[in-house]
Amino acid sequence: MDICDLLGIEYPIFQGGMAHVAKAPLVAAVSEAGGLGIIGGAGMKPEELREEIRKVKRLTSKPFGVNLMLLMGYIEDQIKVVIEEGVPVVTTGAGSPAPFLKELKEHGVKVFPLVGSASLAVRMERMGVDGVVVEGKESGGHIGHVSTLPLLTATLQKIKKVPVIVAGGIGVPEAAQAMKVLGAAGIQMGTRFVASEEAPVSDTYREIVLKANERSTVEVGYRFRHGMRLYKNALARKLLDAEMKGDEKLFEQLARGTLRRAVEDGDPDGGMYMIGQSAGSIWDIKPVAEIIKDFAKVLK
Q1: Hey, is 178 helix, strand or coil?
Q2: What is the DSSP secondary structure assignment for residue 114, as one 8-state letter?
Q3: Following CA atoms 93, 55, 176, 96 in sequence, which dihedral angle do they give, to the nearest 10 degrees?
Q4: How far apart are CA 133 and CA 118, in angstroms?
Q5: Crossing angle for the helix pair 148-158 and 118-127, nearest 10 degrees?
Q6: What does the alpha-carbon distance between residue 177 and residue 174 come to, in Å, rounded to a whole number?
Q7: Residues 6+ apart with CB under 8 A from 212
């Protein structure tokens, strides 16, 4: 089935569930423009998530989703909130949706796990998910080990029953068009939406996206099983140094609270700016509706 028909959206464009960034103003704007806005549920306590869902509902009547990190201590309560609030789509990361899949699907929730390998995508398909989001390591934030192109092509050779959405390195319509030609059912973008008028981020965050080139990010945390792509600022260099020394405790201390410091405070040196390599192709701040319109032209 076509992804738009499956989810009741106009264009096959997902907005990444970025923690502290993917909140009601951005999520509702993406959904209103015809894409699928997705709340970043990571770090939200259950009642915070409920309130954010209700904020989105007040801003749009169109479909939207919630991204859940499955290893969070209160994930069962978050799942309960999603079901009670009638959220139509869930994307998942950091764990397997297997313990919650039956309950979610019984309540009509479409489930799209984020995967970093073709073999994991195959396991998810066999499990009965509604689709998968393959996320290459060009993405900002938490990443795996495989680049977008080989990940997508390997997955498409093995996945035949469910739609495959692709994320990582997509910052311009031409990149989205290439993914469509390869066979992706749709795209997911994060960094491009950070550079939007509606994104609830500090001016510094937007400025960093605009001034970054394709070499302005760095991969950290693999040694501690938490690979991330970050803007290469003073904090990122300190994290790299702690990783090289094998000091996981220091790494965690340095990272704690720094994403909020980027999103809300705009601390250029001490904030954690989770941007992808696609920042090198993003040169302007636009309303979400214009961004969606630009990409929709090549994805119809």
Answers
A1: helix
A2: E
A3: 10
A4: 11
A5: 40
A6: 5
A7: 231, 275, 279, 280
Whether pTM exceeds 0.90: yes
Give me 85's structure tokens.
């609030």
> pLDDT of 55-105, one tens digit each?
999 999 999 999 998 877 789 899 999 999 999 999 998 888 888 989 999
Domain boundaries, the chain: 3-200+284-299, 203-278
The separation between the first and the last C-alpha atoms of the chain, rounded to the nearest angstrom, is 15
Q: Token pair of 284, please?
A: 């302007």
Q: What is the pLDDT of residues 123-150, one digit of tens each?
A: 999 999 999 999 999 999 999 899 999 9
* Distance, CA of 20 to CA of 38 (rounded, Å): 12
Domain 3-200+284-299, CATH among 3.20.20.70, 3.30.530.20, 3.40.50.2000, 1.10.4160.10: 3.20.20.70
Name the strand (E) or helix (H) holding 111. strand 110-115
Shortest CA distance to 219 belongs to which of 206, 204, 229?
A: 229
Q: How many helices (H) and strands (E) does the chain have?
A: 14, 11
CB 159 within 8 A of CB 130: no
